Target: Sugar ABC transporter substrate-binding protein
Amino acid sequence: MRRRSRQLSRTPHRPRRARALAATATAGVLLTLPACAGAGALGQGGDTINVLMVNNPQMLELRKLTADHFTKETGIKVNFTVLPENDVRDKISQDFANQAGQYDVATLSNYETPIFAKNEWLQPLDQYTRKDKSFDQQDILPPVRESLSGEDGKVYAQPFYGESSFLMYRKDVFAEEGLTMPKEPTWPQVAELAAEVDGSQSGMKGICLRGLPGWGELIAPLTSVVNTFGGTWFDKDWKARLDDPAFKKATKFYVDLVRKHGESGAAQAGYAECLNNMTQGKTAMWYDATAGAGSLEGSKSKVKGKIGYVPAPTLKTESSGWLYSWAWGIQKASRNPDKAWKFISWASGKEYERLVGEEFGWANVPAGKRASTYKLPEYKKEAGAFGEVTRRAIAGAEPRDPGVQPRPTIGIQFVDIPEFADLGTKVSQEISAAIAGRQSVETALRKSQALAEEISEDYEGRGR
Model:
């Protein structure tokens, strides 16, 4: 059985050779609102703010609604720059680290937020939440609210949506094959089921698992598997443990499962690709973010009503779902912090959820952040298949205690230190190569252990 909760906090020191978050923006196409000024307007003041955000489906819906609702109500125009996940992280890190002030607001996760706050790159938001009573800060789910706070206890970002992870599966396919999904499956059971449903329909694979390099792509689901198999990136004394038997067993299990019964081109498949595969009926199961359910149950989805949802599979732990949030942060150097807050208050507010429900359907509501969402009759009716499973997954996530051994800092699918963005990405490249068949898991983890040991040199002996 797992060890129970310990009072951990984020690492209080700065390492001798701190590796900065990636600072070079990856080339990508910048998508801007057609009705708004383009890149030439970035950094301007007045009644315009500049928002840098990830290109997830619910963000794109927000972009469609902004001009006709937020701008019409407030007179504040919004210039959006929209990029894929890996690219947007690089660009945000560059702009916020330099305090260039090019962007007023950016989508941050609960990984970057405490780090950026410690570096004084973000505006604390408590002054706004105290004055903005309609925002109702106490309505934000406690695990999400805590994850977006700094060491000083102040809130530095507000969630657009929150998520954990769970297993999604085709109920109709399972019924046709005479299979039953356990209410709380283990990973060995999932592997057996993947083998059974692989090829059950023309072109259908057993499961989709991320294989795309990136600490926020492949590493997120893989680390949740490592945790429940009994592994960890670092032990309580900051010794790297990627070559431990449990880490090796979990990684080999993951790689073997996706190679045998996973999607085609798995080494280049991330969240977006798996979502598309599930929506198009190309896979029978998908382990990933709870946020994906909204798209699967959307009005245009080919699999609407055909998906079942169960908790993240486990092995040695009671739960294994991760905790994540895409959230809005205001750059410290912003010249428009008050207007930026008005945008955040709108985009993360209760009324925005109702707007999305009415415009795009209640299954599309960016949920996982507010307790009140799960009391809305319209949402409960439309999201009945996955809403409560999602809420329980978020409530049960244990970022301070995700495995079977003490950890040196918090984090379920990541390690909450600045160096992890670079380390996780490099390790993901090695494991993705194993998924592609270019090297063995043993070789991938031997290289990865060496990378992690470089981090250990900075932190080792400075444990809690």
